[in-house]
Prior knowledge:
alpha+beta; 3-stranded antiparallel β-sheet; 94 residues; 2 helices; single chain
Amino acid sequence: MALPLAPLAVAAAKYGAVAFAGYALMRQMQPGHLNQRTEDILDEVEEGLTTHRPRDREQLNGAARFRRVIRLGVNGPGIEIDATALGRLKMRRV
């Protein structure tokens, strides 16, 4: 009995396209560096979502922090998640 190659070719094309996109993305990324001042500022952000709009500028600043510990079982191994984001949106009339 013959093996149907059409469904296998479609699946291979899908996975190949995803792999190629990931490879292309990795080639475009530049190596970063650690800035200790930035790390300290991110550690000072309070948990939750905050926004601030200075009166003297046409911009909106925002900060968000999510800190949780997830455990497998009551006393099982856990992982701490600490996600922090800072953002700025500047609007200028031209």
